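Hey, quick one: can you model this chain's 3D structure?
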Amino acid sequence: MERIGILGGTFNPVHTGHLLVAQTVREHCGLDRVALMPCHTPPHKTCGVLARVDERLAMLKLAVGDDPALEICTLETDRGGTSYAVDTMRAFRKNYPQREPYFIIGMDSLRELHLWRHVEELVTLCSFIVVERPGVDTLVRKDEIPLPAPWPERLLASMVRGRLCDVSSSEIRSRIAEGRSIRYLVPEPVRRYIEDQGLYRSKRSHEKGQPH
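Sure thing. Here's the predicted structure for all 212 residues.
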């Protein structure tokens, strides 16, 4: 059974921090590969300037390049509409019976996990890996996860200490809108693509509430 990490997100755009999370989790947890899974329409975040699906996929392909440890999963973009993790994991289990999914989330998502759609089913469909950002995240206590046993204990036992990488997609969009450089914040092929396509130049790209 192949062990595969699932790193979902808007990837608007993909940046170095995403790739570092994927690499760190794969090595720490002994995963065979990590799949970057862009959503079609984010369910919990308000979008200002959201690049088209084909543009976000193009940037992901450039970011992944020929790295054999990474791949792109298009289950959510192929399905269209609002993306809910439980629907995605049902489809993943059906389409890839020989792959064991490990859903990668941040500490902020762990605090909100009980609010996710059909979460009590979701936790049975995949294992979770929680990434802690050192110096940024405050550790979550068991009583802060309002899920029935044994899920709080299992979730807290799945924590991985990530690298400190102070970069976000919203910052990148803001810098582009302000005419500032994003060199070294994204892979160079992604930077060139954004520049060539003229993405994120609108001032609306750095309004409050942008997806990360």
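One thing worth noting: The first strand starts at residue 2 and ends at 9.
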